[in-house]
């Protein structure tokens, strides 16, 4: 559904993405994992056309996104930090987005509004909201248009435990409809039983992209957090093994 092909990005002298390639298929829930500053948000923003890579291409359903913005209507996006006009009320922001996306009222997905009890908050101005409520508004916006692809950047950051669980159940329900879900999170335990694949990034490079089955059979660990930690150690050992090989053959 979305293919990232060899993208690189530099901000000033700083290389943020280094020849990153991966494919995301419909029906998968893909965890994008990596330390702070490893380039996860930059990859996501590149997929949305909010950051333009210096080189490489990104395709959505086989079409290069650089030449056509319409694909964005088919993505629900929850940003890591949602920025909204501070003087607008929640209700006005929701109406504005509905006007922009042009999705008729009878096709709007109200699940999260109801679960998060947003109705009683519609009059509140965005500038006065707590971080958690702002996150709930971002979640409602990502899911309300029934998009086939959902890109969620640290969706549970700032959410209380009950709201995180509501969001998790919603993600599971959408995944069951054969949608693509891409999700980043610092808390790997909350991705358990959700993700089917994991992409690990470090210093702007993709270290591995594996299915959960591969990760579990390779590491013998069933939990995502432990499987990822073991896979990173294996990856590091393999890299060290290559360096040692160079040493032995007298190349260093
Ligand atoms: P992650 O989401 O994995 O924490 P980011 O993609 O947000 O990482 O950032 C990767 C690196 O790129 C960070 O060092 C960040 O400071 C830098 N960066 C991100 N956006 C910009 C920008 N617009 N200008 C300069 N540097 C940026
Ligand atoms: Mg980020």
From TrEMBL:
Q: Which residues cross the membrane?
A: none
Which InterPro entries does this one have?
A: AAA+_ATPase (IPR003593), ABC_transporter-like_ATP-bd (IPR003439), ABC_Transporter_VariousFunc (IPR051782), P-loop_NTPase (IPR027417)
Keyword Zinc among record annotations: no
Q: Where in this chain does the record put each ABC transporter domain? A: 2-228
In terms of superkingdom, the source organism counts as Bacteria
One GO MF annotation is: ATP binding
Keywords from the named record: ATP-binding, Nucleotide-binding, Transport
Which PANTHER family did the record assign?
ABC TRANSPORTER ATP-BINDING PROTEIN ALBC-RELATED (PTHR42939:SF1)
User: What name appears for this protein in its UniProt entry?
Assistant: ABC transporter related
Q: Which organism is it from?
A: Dyadobacter fermentans (strain ATCC 700827 / DSM 18053 / CIP 107007 / KCTC 52180 / NS114)
């Amino acid at each position: 559904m979305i293919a990232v092909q060899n993208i690189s990005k530099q901000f000033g002298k700083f290389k943020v993405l280094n020849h990153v390639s991966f494919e995301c298929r419909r029906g998968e829930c893909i965890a994008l994992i990596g330390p702070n500053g490893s380039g996860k948000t930059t990859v996501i923003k590149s997929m949305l056309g909010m950051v333009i890579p210096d080189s490489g291409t990104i395709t959505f359903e086989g079409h290069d996104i650089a030449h056509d913005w319409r694909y964005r209507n088919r993505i629900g996006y929850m940003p890591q930090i949602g920025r909204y006009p501070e003087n607008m009320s929640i209700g006005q922001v929701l109406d504005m987005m509905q006007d922009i996306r042009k999705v008729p009222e009878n096709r709007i997905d109200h699940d999260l509004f109801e679960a998060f009890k947003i109705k009683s908050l519609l009059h509140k101005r965005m500038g006065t909201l707590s971080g958690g409520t702002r996150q709930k508004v971002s979640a409602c916006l990502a899911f309300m248009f029934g998009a086939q692809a959902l890109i969620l950047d640290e969706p549970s950051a700032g959410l209380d435990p009950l709201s995180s669980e509501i969001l998790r159940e919603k993600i599971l329900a959408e995944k069951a409809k054969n949608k693509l879900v891409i999700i980043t999170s610092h808390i790997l335990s909350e991705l358990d039983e959700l993700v089917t694949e994991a992409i690990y990034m470090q210093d702007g490079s993709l270290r591995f992209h594996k299915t959960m089955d591969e990760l579990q059979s390779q590491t013998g660990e069933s939990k995502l957090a432990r499987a990822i930690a073991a896979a990173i150690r294996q990856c590091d050992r393999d890299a060290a093994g290559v360096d040692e090989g160079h040493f032995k053959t007298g190349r260093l």
